[in-house]
Amino acid sequence: MSISYFLPRLSGFFVFLLSATVLIATTLLIFLNTQPERKHISVNSFPTPFSARILTYTEPINNYQISYPSEWHVDNSIPGIVSLQFGGAHITIDSANSSHITLPIEAWVRKINKQMAEDPGRPSYSSLITILRKDNVLKNIPGIVVIDNSFYAEVGQEYLFPHKNSVFSISYDYYTDNSEFGGQNDDILAQINQILSTFHFLESSSIPPPTSSVWTTYSDPKLAFSVTFPSNWTIKNISDSDVSFSAPGQQNTDSDTGILVSTDAWWQPTGNLPDSQSKFNSFINNCSSVTPTTCAQKNNEFYKFEKQVTVAGLPAFQTYGGCCMDIGRHIFVYNGDTAYRITLYNVGLKENEFRNLDVFNRFLSTFKFTN
Question: Which terminus of the chain has a smaller tally of CB atoms within 10 A, N or C?
Answer without folding.
Answer: N
